Amino acid sequence: MDTQVFQLSHVVARRNAAQAVMAAPDGFMVKIGPRTRSTDQNALLHALFGEVAKKATWCGRRLTLDQWKVLFISGHAIATGLGADMVPGLENEYVNIRESSARMSVARMTSLIEYVLAWCAENGIDTHEARIRYGHEVAA
């Protein structure tokens, strides 16, 4: 049996999901939760991180896409009231145990994208190319 995904948006979808649960073999699992980020959102977000990595510095140095991702997700958590969870690391460094972007809801990911776009606008980072490439052009 292949993996099945049901978006619970109407009665028929709920009925089909219930039937799939009843027909599933022993040992299968069911998870019900909010829809997570879309592939398009993920692609846009990483394109934005890439633009920032090419055009911006932080604390006087260039950072990688992955380093900017950590900074933006951490900053977004603070800006939206989620806070930070700083703990001493295994080698006595400080680590922010941050939320996972892969587990963000569509709405949370939208908020993060808006946060990145606002930061870019405030810091003179042109994101036009990334937004065009992923079909998310915002009117000027």
- CATH class descriptor of the largest domain: Mainly Alpha
- Tell me the name of the CATH homologous superfamily of the largest domain: NinB
Largest sheet: 2 strands, antiparallel
User: How many domains, in number, for the residues?
Assistant: 2
Structure description:
This protein has five helices and two strands, in the order αααββαα. It is mainly alpha-helical and 140 residues long. It has two domains: 1-33, no CATH class; 39-133, NinB fold, CATH 1.10.3790.10. A two-stranded antiparallel sheet has the order 1-2. The radius of gyration is 19 Å and the shape is extended. The model has no long low-confidence stretch (mean pLDDT 90).
Question: Topology, please?
Answer:
Blueprint: H1 11-23, H2 39-55, H3 65-79, E1 86-88, E2 94-96, H4 106-122, H5 128-133
Antiparallel strand pairs: 1-2
Provide tags for this entry.
single chain, mainly alpha, 2 strands
Summary?
This is Recombination protein NinB. This protein is mainly alpha-helical.
